[in-house]
Design goal:
- There is one protein chain.
- The radius of gyration is 15 Å and the shape is globular.
- It is of the alpha/beta class.
- It starts with a helix and ends with a helix.
- It is 41% helix and 18% strand.
- It has a single domain, classed as Response regulator (Rossmann fold), CATH 3.40.50.
- It has a six-stranded mixed sheet with strand order 1-3-2-4-5-6, with helices on both faces.
């Protein structure tokens, strides 16, 4: 029972946005509550459906079916993940995604971005990396470009 309660506390599935019939689905993983809430709010204002994860463990839980052959999984069009979170990091998720063909594109965000982090994220296939603090409008522009490409 404790694990179920923990899972419910770490993953927030919110109702789908009904304003846009062609809405894209984004999985957002950020352990900082204020940052996660702000990003989720701005993404929803753009008409995207957003599923929030509070840490790396809940992110991995949401994505685990991608790594199991034959398993059905939720269809996310994009993942936005903090790099440093409790549990699994965004970079570790990106490393695992390299093994799969049908994995959604990943945008990473970090407060600890150095040149090596950027190079590693690029090598592993991140579609973008934003250093905190970043311009949310720039991120939304990048999200739009990725989803419409």
């Amino acid at each position: 029972m404790e694990k179920t309660t923990e899972k419910k506390n770490n993953i927030y599935r919110l109702s789908k946005n009904t304003h846009n019939r062609n809405s894209f689905s984004i999985l957002l993983a950020e352990d900082d509550k204020e940052m996660r809430s702000l990003l989720a709010l701005m993404l929803r204002k753009e008409g995207y459906q957003v599923c929030e994860c509070t840490d790396g463990f809940s992110l991995l839980d949401m994505l685990s079916s991608f790594f199991l052959p034959g398993e059905e999984h939720e269809n996310f069009d994009l993942i936005i993940s903090d790099i440093r979170m409790p549990g699994v990091t965004g970079m570790e998720i990106l490393m695992g995604a390299n093994e799969l063909d049908n994995f959604p594109p990943i945008i990473l965000i970090t407060a600890f971005g150095d040149k090596e982090t950027h190079m590693q994220a690029e090598r592993l296939g991140a579609v973008a990396l934003f250093d905190k603090p970043f311009d949310i409008d720039e991120m939304l522009k990048k999200v739009r470009a990725i989803l419409l490409s």
